[in-house]
Write a structure and sequence with these properties.
By secondary structure, the chain is mainly alpha-helical. The chain is 72% helix and 0% strand. The protein contains 15 helices and no strands. α1 packs parallel to α5. The protein is flat. It starts with a helix and ends with a helix.
């Protein structure tokens, strides 16, 4: 549990430094991940003494001890809100481990930071690549790691082996993100990319462009010229005047299409036939569309199907990887309601889960009752487990069969 508290604060502060670290680096600072580890350790220690307000506050304030060791004034100014945040959480005794909250923070990181990074590239690209981007990667890793760890049973993530493996892998990935942002590594990557591009790709591209593409362009233009000559000879019904330089080739084209044999077609008749064919196709498509709309209409005697607008909170666009068991249960219950509406059940705004249960004909009443019990635990008590979420998915699948 102590490691989870530290991981939570590490994700929060990395999320903050993904934005604030850019400004610190832009004004001469050098933010690193090491500056975030000390507040995380202090908060984890304060979580061990949550019953003692004075001691936990002192331990949280101990995170300010790193201020004199920061190299630049910009680093100190950016680090000060992190100290205030850790202290405020400790004073208010907010030691909850909410996977839903961290998942929401991760979603906001994905929504906001790409726009922020793209905009700040125009101002200071070096600060974005060396500070903001590694911090954003570290924040994403910490938030996802916290969310995935809390999905496990306490017996699993409390084991020392699990903590060592997970912590080592997280540290390795975060270190790799900062390693790639170093100037020496970036120069090596640039040199490797330049060598591959100029010594491998450029010769191959030159070979292809000079031989295959150039020959293909010549052949295409030659065939296109033949086609233009054929069309002119076809609809003009006379000898094509292509100029002195192309007179012989136009004669070959006329010989090919059989102009002397009387095989030329009448231009106006061809255009009229094409117009009739086009009108017939449009008519067929219109009739097909009308018939489809008729078949898709609601059956006689069924209740009108109303389309319910859902908020971004209930309309989950993210996979179950980032959802808590409570959110997954609510998502399955939403699928159950959509299935009921598709079968003609009218759900009013004031209807409760008890009002809806059993109203749709042909459904398993026992499965609906069990699904409602799981939904009530997830909706009001927020005590649903991973097993409840899996059971809710099985019940919805059983009801919808």
């Amino acid at each position: 549990m102590i490691a989870l508290h530290g991981l939570r604060i590490l994700g929060d502060l990395a999320f903050y430094y993904a934005f604030a670290g850019f400004f610190a680096a832009g004004f001469g600072g050098h933010p690193t991940i090491w500056a975030l580890l000390w507040p995380a350790v202090c908060f984890a220690a304060a979580a061990c003494f949550r019953k003692n307000p004075a001691l936990r506050t002192v331990l949280a304030l101990a995170s300010a001890a790193a201020l004199p060791f920061l190299p630049a004034r910009a680093d100190q100014l950016v680090y000060l809100p992190a100290v205030c945040y850790v202290t405020l959480l400790a004073v208010r005794e907010e030691f909850g481990l909410s996977a839903v909250q961290q998942g929401e923070r991760f979603r906001w990181l994905l929504r906001i930071w790409p726009l922020f990074g793209a905009a700040m590239l125009l101002w200071n690209a070096d600060a974005v690549l060396t500070t903001a981007l590694p911090m954003a990667i570290t924040a994403a890793l910490a938030l996802v790691w916290f969310t995935r760890t809390t999905r496990q049973d306490p017996e699993v993530y409390s084991a020392p082996s699990y903590l060592l493996i997970s912590g080592g892998l997280l540290a390795a990935l975060s270190g790799a993100a900062f390693l790639l942002s170093r100037s020496a590594v970036m120069n090596g990557v640039k040199a490797l990319a330049a060598a591959v591009y100029f010594k491998l790709l450029v010769p191959v591209l030159q070979l292809v462009l000079n031989n295959v593409v150039a020959y293909g362009i010549v052949v295409v233009f030659e065939k296109l010229w033949y086609a233009i000559a054929w069309v002119l000879a076809l609809f003009a019904n006379r000898q094509v005047a292509m100029g002195d330089l192309y007179e012989s080739r136009a004669g070959d084209v006329r010989d090919t299409i059989g102009e002397e044999s009387g095989l030329l077609m009448d231009g106006p008749r061809v255009l009229a036939g094409v117009a009739v064919l086009f009108a017939a196709v449009l008519l067929i498509l219109a009739v097909r569309h009308i018939l489809r709309r008729g078949r898709a209409a609601e059956p006689t005697g069924a209740a009108p199907m109303t389309k319910c607008r859902t908020s971004l909170r209930t309309r989950r666009r993210w996979p179950g990887l980032f959802l808590s068991p409570n959110a997954r249960v609510r998502r399955e219950y939403r699928a159950y309601l959509d299935y009921c509406k598709a079968h003609g059940l009218t759900i009013l705004r004031g209807d409760t889960s008890l009002d809806i249960m059993g109203r749709a004909s042909g459904m398993d009443y026992a499965a609906e009752a069990e699904l409602r019990e799981i939904y009530l635990r997830a909706r009001y008590a927020e005590t649903a487990t991973a097993e409840d979420a899996a059971r809710a998915a099985e019940l919805v699948k059983k009801i919808c069969e």
